[in-house]
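Here is a complete protein record:
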Amino acid sequence: MQENLIDLKNDLVFKRLFTEKELSEFWLYLNSKFPKLSNAAIESLLPFGSSYLCEQGFSTLTEMKSKKRERLQMIDEEMRVCLSQVHPRIDLICSQKQSQCSH
C-alpha cells in the first residue's frame, strides 16, 4: 500500500484530480487503480461525513431552541430550512412579481 501511495503522490494527473474533485469523489475515482488504498481512505472518511452532519444538526437545533425561541412550534420545518444546501434566489423571485402601487 505504501508503494501505491508513493505512485499516487508523484502522479501529476492524480494531483490535478485531487484539486478538482471533492475528497470522496477523488477516492471513489481511484478505486479501480488503487483499490486497497481507496477503500482505506473511504473507510476513514465515512465517520467524519456522518458526524459532521449530525453535529451541524445539533448546533442548529440548539440555536433554534434557545431562550429567545422556546415557543417554536414546527421544529422539523425550521430544521429543514436551516440545514438545506439550497439557497433561495430572492432577487429572481422578486423580479417575477409585480409590485403593487398605491393609489
The two ends are 77 Å apart (CA to CA). The chain has one domain: 2-82.
